[in-house]
Amino acid sequence: AQKVTQAQTEISVVEKEDVTLDCVYETRDTTYYLFWYKQPPSGELVFLIRRNSFDEQNEISGRYSWNFQKSTSSFNFTITASQVVDSAVYFCALGGPSYSGAGSYQLTFGKGTKLSVIP
Amino acid sequence: EAQVTQNPRYLITVTGKKLTVTCSQNMNHEYMSWYRQDPGLGLRQIYYSMNVEVTDKGDVPEGYKVSRKEKRNFPLILESPSPNQTSLYFCASSLMADGMNTEAFFGQGTRLTVV
User: Mean pLDDT for chain A?
Assistant: First the structure.
């Protein structure tokens, strides 16, 4: 079975600080996708990034960056110069084959990390 | 506008009274799924569907049913709701690419309370 662990339940930072959200995953498969989603206080789920298991290149998008390391099964997310608008719950997710049936795929989420950015 | 639409957004019901939460997507996505979100537990997948007439259990399927008669619709059915099914429910859809599901587009959520 696949599993996603976000060990940090809640993090508080002061505005303009950098913050890293950790994500560790477990899967038996060599082919899978990793995702990050943001859930602001309004409740909707916003897609941030998808990473294929074959692509270990790190990615930067503005103040956001992602560090994918297959060797440690981690897909960490860093926000540089945090802003109050970054306050949200962030979910890491793993998409991959389900073992309940051939050709089936599941999407497994971590429990989320609540980030509070204090002005 | 590409979107996933869930209805209703809020629902209060009594134990044992059958209910259906509808979900519809207009992006021609093959993959659709339902999740429930509970404090401290994150999002847990209830059921998912790879395509029409193909459904499979997620991590917490007990007490729920789904059907996928058309590609765009994926209703969630609670035949006999119980208080432990009080939760925030999300429907999602995604394209299949390279044999894998890609990023999921989520509905706005349905806040269900069972009393």
Answer: 90
